[in-house]
Amino acid sequence: MSLLQVCKLTARAQTLRAAAVQSRGVATGASKAPVVPAQKVASSDITPAPQPPRDVMVADVISGAPAELRHRSVRIYQPTRSTMQSGGAKSERWRIDFDILPFGGRWENPLIGYASSADYMQGTKMSFRTKEDAIHFAEKQGWDYYVQTPPKVRIPPKNYSENFLYRPGKLRIVRTK
């Protein structure tokens, strides 16, 4: 891509940013509108304002990232909780992981036996608050992505009395000592 094309893209980004600032109501020297007191409205009458569609401008050209990073495949998922914890901490966040390249220069280290790779992005993980933020970031970077749906959380019912419940045909634990 030539320098002229990059300059045109940055100029376009600046005009889009200026238009976004004006649309948010930030005045550039204009006088403020008079403040009108709010009226009491029933909670059933409130409807959320429609969100404008996000204008996605691919940032991979301007970012300076290497060409082999463009159009990488990433996985967007919600990680499961660790087996060492009983709470759901850090399980509400969404994560982006890079997929392994098919010919990513993988080899086995002969001294220790660990698997090594020439792919410098395989260990990169990014965390986001929502799935939409992660998708927007992947689209903005020009990455191909797929969203892995989170598994259903099923907590089995536990009852101590179930250990001593009589069920015909089931072998019971009999302690002899």
From TrEMBL:
Biological process according to GO: electron transport chain
InterPro entries referenced in this protein's UniProt entry, alphabetically: NADH_UbQ_FeS_4_mit-like, NDUFS4-like_sf
Topology term for the membrane: Peripheral membrane protein
Assigned GO CC terms: mitochondrial inner membrane
Superkingdom: Eukaryota
Pfam hit, one: NDUS4
Keywords: Electron transport, Membrane, Mitochondrion, Mitochondrion inner membrane, Respiratory chain, Transit peptide, Transport
Locations listed in the record: Mitochondrion inner membrane
PANTHER family registered for this protein in UniProt: NADH DEHYDROGENASE [UBIQUINONE] IRON-SULFUR PROTEIN 4, MITOCHONDRIAL, NADH-UBIQUINONE OXIDOREDUCTASE
Family: Belongs to the complex I NDUFS4 subunit family.
Function: Accessory subunit of the mitochondrial membrane respiratory chain NADH dehydrogenase (Complex I), that is believed not to be involved in catalysis. Complex I functions in the transfer of electrons from NADH to the respiratory chain. The immediate electron acceptor for the enzyme is believed to be ubiquinone.
Protein name: NADH dehydrogenase [ubiquinone] iron-sulfur protein 4, mitochondrial
Species this protein is from: Lyophyllum shimeji
Taxonomy of the source species: Eukaryota, Fungi, Dikarya, Basidiomycota, Agaricomycotina
